[in-house]
Structure formats: C-alpha cells, structure tokens
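Input/output pair, single chain:
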Amino acid sequence: MANYSPQHFEPRAKAVNVKGVANRAVATVLTAGLIAQPLMSPLAAIAAPSTDNGDSVQGGGSSVENTVAAGNQAVVKTAAQLAEESAKQLKDAQAAYDAAQKNADAAGQSQKQAQQQKNQASQAVSDNEIEQNAAEVAALQEKIDELKAAVEKTEQQQKKLGDLNDQLDQANKSVEDKTQALKDAKAKQDEAKKALDDAQAKLDAMGMDEYEAAKKAVEDAQAKLDAANEAVVTAQANLDQAKAAEASAQQEKQNTEAALTSAQAKKQETAAALAAATTARDNAQQKLNQAQAALDAAVSGTGVDLSALEAAKNAAAGELKTAQDALEAATTADATAQANLQAAQTTVTAAQEKANAANAAVASAQSAYDAANKEYKDAASKRDTAKSAYEQAQQTEADKKAEYDRLVEVRQQKRAEYDAICAEVTSAKSAYDAASAEVDKLNQQIADLKSNMTVDQNVISQGMFGFMNYIIGGSQFTATQKKNAQDAVSMLTGADDKAEWYDNYVDQDMSRDTNPLSLEQMRNALTYLDTQNNLRKANGQSALSVSLRMTAAAALNTSYSSNIWGHSNCYFDNGENLAGGGGAYTGGETEDTLGWPYTGLYTQEKEKFDKYVEQYGDDLGSHRYDAYYIYQNYASISRECGHYLNIIDSSTRAIGIATGSGKNTDSEVTIFDYSDDDTQADFTVSEFKKLLNDYIDSAYNAGGTQEQKEQLKQLQNKLAEAQKNYGSTSNAYYAAVNKKDSARDAYTAADTNVNTARGEYEKAKSGTAAAKTAYDAAEAKLKGIDVKTPKTKLDAAKSEAATAQAALDKANAALADSKTKAADAAADKAKARSAHDAAKVKSDQASEAYDNATASVKDLAAKRDAAKTDLANKQGTLDDAKKADDTAQAGVDKAQAADVHAATALSGAKQAVAAKAQAVSDAQAKAKAAEGELAGANKAFERFAGAQKAVDDAKAAYDAAVAGVADAQKQLEAANEAVVDANLEIVKAKAELASDEALKADLEAVDHKASLAAGTTGNEKLVKLNAAYARYKAAVDATAGLKAALSDADAKLSDANDAYAAALAELGDAKDALAAAQAEYDKYHPKAEPQAKPQVAQAAAKAPVAKKKATDGALAQTGDTSALAGEVFVIGGITLVAAGVTLGDRRRKQM
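Output:
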C-alpha cells in the first residue's frame, strides 16, 4: 500500500492494514447462517481483493471462503433457528455499531486536538522566526542609536571643551587686562599723591601765620555756631521732651499704659542718641590722640631744637648790633677824612692830573688783564663742572652696574623658585592622578560587587519619594516625623505649593544617578552634614538637625538652580545657600582643611566679614551670629557675606541638603536649605545618616551575602577616605598650579627688571663717555687761554704809574698823606658796612629759621587744640545726651507713677513747655548771631579757600585713586579665581570627554554578528545593547525546542489521523455489518417488529454523521472522505459492505 501524505504536513509514514479490517467485517457478517452453495462464488470474489497491479490473489483462499465451505458441508438449520439467530445477530451488530460510533467520535476529537496543537506549535515556530528577525533588527538599531548618541555627546563634549578653553583664554586675557589696570591705577595713585603734595605745598607757602590765624577765626566762629546750634538742638530737644511730657501727662489721664509706652519710646530715642554721642566722643578722642601724637613727633621726632634756634637768633641779633655800632663809628671817621682830603685836593690839582693820566693807563691794562683772567676763571669753572659731571657719571654707571648684577641674581633666584614649584606641581599632579585613579578603582570595585548582588530596583526607582513613604509607614517614627515626611511627599509630588517651574525642571525618574531626588544623590548629600555642624561648633553654635521637609525643598530647588542659575525663592524657610558643582563633598571638616564649596561659602566670606568687623566695630561683630539683624542693618554686607552668615546663624535649627542636576541639564549644583522652626528638627545628623544609609543599603544589597555586604561596606569606607584624599590632593594640585603661575609671573617680572636694568646700565655707560668728552674739551679750552701777556702789560703800566705817582707824592706829600688817610677811613667804613650787611643776613636767617620752626609746631599745636575743642564739644554733647537719657528714664518712672498725679503733672508739663519754648527762642537768637560772626570769618578766609579747596580736591582725587587701586586689586583677584575655575571645568570636561570617547570606542568595537551569536557584547557597560543581543539569543535558543515541539505535534497528529481513519473504517464496517444483519433479520421476519426498523434507520442515519465528522476533521484537508463509506453488494438478498477493499482501491486512485 502506498504512503498517505496530507497537503500541509509532513507526518511520519504509517500503513493501515485495510485488508485485515475488511476480513474482520466480513467474518462478522458471514456466519454459519450462509447455507446455500450458490453463494460461494460471488463471496469468494468479494473476499479476494486485487493487488496494486490489479492481479487476483492466488493460493489457498481466505478465511471467509473456508468458513463458507465448511457451512456448505456441515451446517443445516431450521428456519426458526435461523430467525432466532438473525435476531441475535442484529442485536449484536447494533451494539457493535454503537461502540464503533463512540470510538469514531473520540478519535475525531483527539484528531482535532492534535491538529490544534500542531497549529499552535507551527505558529510558535513562525512567531519565533519573527521575533528573531525583530530582535536582530532591534539590536542593530540599538547599537546604531547608542553609537549615534555617543558620537553626538562626544561632539558636544568636544565643543564644550573648546568653549571652556575659550573661556580660559578669556580669563587669562582678563588677568592680563586686570594686571595692567592695577598698574595704571597705581600710577594714577602716585600722580594723585604728587598733586596732593603740590597743593599742600602751595597752601603752606601762602604764609602759615596768617593762614592759621584766619583758619582759627573760622574754626572758632564755626565752633561757636556749632555750639549755638547744639544749644538750639538741645533746647529744641528739651522743648520736645517737655511737649512729650505734656502729651504723656494728658494721655495718662486717659490711659496710663499708653503714657508708659510713650515714655519708654522716648527712652529708646535718648538711648540711641546717647550711643551716637558716645561714638562721636570716642572718635573725637581718637582724633585728639592722633593730633597729639603728630605734635609730639614734630617736636621730638624731627630733630628740631627750638632752644638752639632761639639762642642762634639772639646771638645773631647781638652781632648785628655790634656791627651797627662799628658802622656808625666808621662813617663818622670817614666824614672827617673826606673833609681833610677835600681841602688838600684843591692844592694839588695839577699834580693829580698827571697822576690821573698814569693811573688811566694802569686802569686800561688792568681791564685787559681782568677780562683775560675772567675768561680763564670761567673756563676753569666749566672744567670743574665737567669734571664733577664726569665723576657723577662714573658713580651712576657703577650704581647701575651693581643694580644690574643684583637683579641678575634675583632673576636666577626666581628661576630656581619657579623650577622648584614646577617640580612641586608635577608631584602634586602625580598625587592628584593617583588619588583620582584610586577613586575610580574603588568605584569600579563597588560596581563589580554590586553587579553580583541583587538590587531592589523598585526601591531605587522611587528615590526620595520612597524614602519619605518608608518613614510615613514606619511604626518606629514619631507623629511629627511622619507629618514632616508627608509634607515632604506633598512637595515632591507637586500636591502642595507647586512651583510654576516644577514640571519643566523636576525629573520624576528618580533612578537617574544625578537626579537630586535619587538615592545616589541623597547619599552624596550626607557627606556635607558633618562639616556644616563642625563649622557651627567652631563658632559656638548648636548642631543642626536634619529636616525632612528642607531635604525635599533642597532637592526641588536643586532641580531649578541647575537649570536656571540662581535661587528659586521657593520651598525653604529662612535661608538658602547655593553652590556650583555637585557630587559628594571631598574636603576636610575643619576650618583649616575645607574644600569646595565650603572654601567659597565659608572661608572667603568669613575673611570679608572679619574685615568689615574691623571697620564697623563691635556693633557688627557682636551680631555675627544674627543673620537677620545684619540683613536689616548692614544689607550690603549681608549680600556679600550671606552664605557664611547662614551657616553660623544662631536661630537656625534644621537643614536639608541636596546635590545633582534637574531635568534637561547636565549642570550640577548643591543646595543648603535652612529652617528656624523647631518642629522641623526631625533627626540628628548621625541618626539621619544611619537611617538613610541603612535604607539605601537594603535596596542595593537586597540579595547579597553577609560577606558581600561586609566587603561592600569596607569598599565604601575606603571610597569615602579616597574621596577625601582626592579632594585634598586636588586642592593641593590647584594651589601648586596657582603658585606656579605666581612664580612664573615673578620670574617674568624679574627678567623684565633685568632687561630694564641692563638698558639703564648701558645708558649710564654712554652718559659716562659723554661726560668724559665734555670734561676733556673743557680742560683743553682752559689751557688755550693767555693770561701772561695782559699781566706783563699791566705790570709795565703800573711801573709808569708808580713813577708818575712818585712825582706826585713828592710834589704833594700832604695830599698823598690826606688821600691815604681818606682811603683808610673809606676802607674802614666799607669794612664796617660789609660786616654790618653780613650780620644782618645772619640775623635774618636765624630769625627766619626760628620762625619757620615755631610756625610748624604751632600748626600741629593748633590742630591739637582744635581736636581738644572738638572733644570738649563732643563731651558736652555726650553729657547732654546722658542728661536727656536720665530725663527719659525719669519720664518712664514718672509715667509709671503718674496715674494718681495726672492732673498736677499736666499743669507742670504745660509750664515746662512755655519755659522750653522761650529757651528755644533764646538759643535761636544766639545761633543767628554766631552765623554772622562765621560769615565775617569766612570772608577773611576767602583768599585761602581756593588753595584749601585745591588741597581738598587733591585729597579727594587721591582717596578715589586709592579706592581705584583697591578695586583693581579685587578685580584682579576675581580674574585669577576665574582662571582657576576655568581650569577646574576643563579638567572635568576632559574627564567627561574621555568617558564619552571610551563609550564610543566600546560601541565601535562591538562585533554585531559575534554579539548576536553570543547574546552579549562582552562589555558590561553596554547594558541596553547587551539586553537587545540577549533577546535575540533567547529567540535563537528557543528555536530548537519549538521545532522539536512542532515535530512532536506533527507525529501526534499523524497518529491521530491514522487512529481516526481506522475508527471511521471500523464504523463503516460496523454499519455494513448492521445493514447485513438487518437484511438477514428481515429475511426471516417478513413482518418485522416495529423497533427493528428504527434501529436500522438509526444506524443508517449515523453513517452521514460519521461522514460529516470526518469531513469536519483535519483529514478534510487531505482528500475526499466519502471513499470511507465503502460499496454495497447484494448477494442473494444479503447486503454486504466491502469497505476495506473499496478504501484500499480508492486510496490508490487518490495517490
């Protein structure tokens, strides 16, 4: 028999023994009831099926033939027996048919189930093929997406690094500009100082005596006016006080408590006035001390000896008087001698004319000689000047050479210092790199360890929200703690006081590591708490507790401030500090070991505040720990030092800290939110750290072994220490970098100084050469002047004059004698005049020196006296203020007792008002008179006003220049800080770029085909991509099982088909047998019982049902099941169904 092959499956081949089935059916129908021999041939023909090629079967015959033969030979029964047997056979055939029908139904159901299982298995195989294709496409797309993202992020980081380098260049340029600006400001300061000195010198040159007198007159008038004005103010204050007392008395009759309040308010006013007057008196005392010190320094510190100057002045005056007496005596003697000479002159006129002629010749020769001699002396003077210049040039050259040599040594020293600091930078960089590597190593070890420990992802994904709900649901927490946790949850979810920016910046994905609401960032925030309290302890302030609500507030505000730099002004209670940068704190916990951000929030601002305390004194210093007071009274200082003041504020009770970045940004910040509400102090720092660490550890270490947990704890402790070491080495490294920059600047400046000094030295050498040339020229000119020839001519003329004079003397001895005496007298007079003039100069100089010395001391003494006067005035004001304060206190006391004496007090108060009003009128009249006196003094002082104004203007300009230098210095410091910040950002950006490039390289290194085969990239960092490949691998791994299941379902379906076909065949046989039995029964029972036909009809009716079931079954897909009905043969009135033979034949036709 040929194999049976359905259209849609490939089941196992299985042969059905149709021949055997047919034999069984025929054997059931043909019994001993077949008695007629003519039946043999047809039956034998039916029972002998054809072979596949149509040939008849030859041989010994079938069992049917044997049975028939036996019947013909031995069985002979009566009609009654045959009728009874046919009835029994009909009943048995009906039972066999019913059983076959039941078996066929069961086989059909099994076949249907097997077909469904086959369909399901086939669909699973098809779905798995689709899943493989989809997973492969998804894995490839994931790789493309991640690589694209990595490339984009790398490009962004490269751009960011470029921008940061540009910022660094700008910062360096700013440092250069600020350095030049500082130099310019210092130059302006020097110029302003010179202008101030010049203006002061001009003022001093105007005559200190007159200036001081006019100035003193103005000051006295001003002091008198000030005193008068103060008297007016005092009188007015007294009047106001009296009026207040009157109002107080009037009010007391109505409400004694209101009167007391008014008096107390007055007391506060006078107390404030007393404090102001005390401050003014102290300032005046300080000015007096300074003036006295200056006077003392002028007297004792400048080396001026007034006694010696006075003695010199008196001695010079005595010498002048002696010279005056001598001059008068010489004048008298000269007059007498001149009278005698006049008398003798008349006698010797003629002789004198000859002598005059001779003398004229001498004079001419003398003139020529004097001219030559003058030229010689002038040349000698110029020679001497040139010589001095030459010697000075030599000295200058030597000085410049020495300075140049010194600066060369300084440059060498600065170079050595720079090289040493470079080595220090290298060492610090090595330590910094080692610390950074250690942190990275420990982080990796922790990550590796955690990867082998079960993580409660649900707890992690809920972040701070889950932690707050844990407190809300925990029985170990107080009602206040739960309420505050609930308030925090309302804030976190936006249910309460939702900020308008909430949706834009608050990230609900709390599993993101940098989200301030994540557990990772909550753990980082813990690292700031101990330092916060250590700084408060160092300032004598109580430790802060941790507020759950402020913790949530800080996290929300961190989300805002990381997107929009600045304070959100939402959620926090009484203060907030904001710092750029995030992550765990790595600095020290004490003032001398702090790291960022505390160096900015605390250290730098504390230095500024301390300087302000020096400037403003105890009023500011005594309120150091009262941030609100400083905010109200010193707003600018509060703005400049507010972070520091928030940290140490005595009213603060609790804190919340958060760090990280909000939605839509990579920028990280750290927020400190403060509360002065005692109900917000939920946990101590140690309690909160343990609570949060235990909570986080329970999430990250949910399934780890005790050994793993202990190892993780040790690694985390090591990481904390490594992070601190990283912070300290980072600070040391950047400090060394700053020192290196400073050393480089110092070396550059030293090198510049050397070059400048070299230029000055070369210039000095040139100056020396030029001076020597000038000296040589002057010496040569001096040697070229002829003085001897004029001297010879002069001597000759004198000889002739002597001869003439001798003749004259001889002719007029008397005249000569008179002339001699007159000449002597004239010489004596000239000598006396010369001595007198010299004594006069000496006396004038001594007097001027004494006057100048005394005038300088008087100036300082006048300032000292003015300071004394001012102090006296301020003391008077203070006394008045004390009196007013005492009076106000008395008013308070009086107000307290005034309930009984209200009417009397009111009358007295009205009288006091009248008296004080008169006192005010009198004081105002005196003030008006004082104004007139001041106007007159000012008019006399007007000529000094311009010079004084010039001094004042120059002083203002100088003060402005000093402030400009300070401002330029501050800007330079800020620019240097910007350079440091830019370098830090570049270091961070380079680290981020290296990480991004490493990820890009990892993605590019992924072998797609190999990863598909392995189900992973082999790189643990590529989590999402590994998951995509794992999905594909899972689908591939499932293929074999699914195909095996399909093959098994196919085999089961084939078995079910065979069983169903066999059951249908048996049903057909049973049906045919039933029909044959019915026919046999009808043969012997012509009038059959009524129930027989229904049974046969039922049997006949079931055949189509069986046929329909077969048609509905899976075999309907393989061919026409009508062949299973078989063919009916009527032989001698007996119906037979040769189903098996017909089925076999038809199957062969269908194949």
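Confidence is low (pLDDT under 50) at residues 1-74, 1088-1151. The beta strands are 545-546, 575-580, 654-660, 669-675, 1128-1131, 1134-1137.
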